[in-house]
Amino acid sequence: MLGSVRTSGGKSAAISAATITTNWVRSELAAEYMKGALETAIEKNEGILPTGTAEVCTRNVRNQ
């Protein structure tokens, strides 16, 4: 887990980055590098998060 963010509505959501799939492994350092961009993306798009979202996890679409 990379931490958490608080939405403008006062809700808290955990943020994380996928570090392993059946096709690839991402280092913890690389996952931590993504934290700032993920926080910014959530702030700019929090209106599309479903009600009750507890965690937002980022992944690399090119390497699914």
Describe this structure in words.
- With 64 residues, the protein is an alpha+beta fold.
- The chain has one domain (3-63).
- It has helices at residues 28-33, 35-45; strands at 3-6, 12-17, 55-58.
- Strand 1 (3-6) and strand 2 form a beta hairpin.
- It is elongated and about 35 Å long.
- The model has no long low-confidence stretch (mean pLDDT 86).
Task: List its traits.
single chain, 2 helices, three-stranded mixed β-sheet, alpha+beta, 64 residues
The string of secondary-structure elements, in order, is: EEHHE
Main β-sheet: number of strands, strand sense, barrel status?
A: 3 strands, mixed
Protein structure class:
alpha+beta
What's the average pLDDT? 86
Number of helices: 2
Q: Which strand-content bin applies to the residues? A: 15-25%
Rg, rounded, reads 12 Å
> Helical proportion?
25-40%
Q: Give the number of DSSP strands.
A: 3
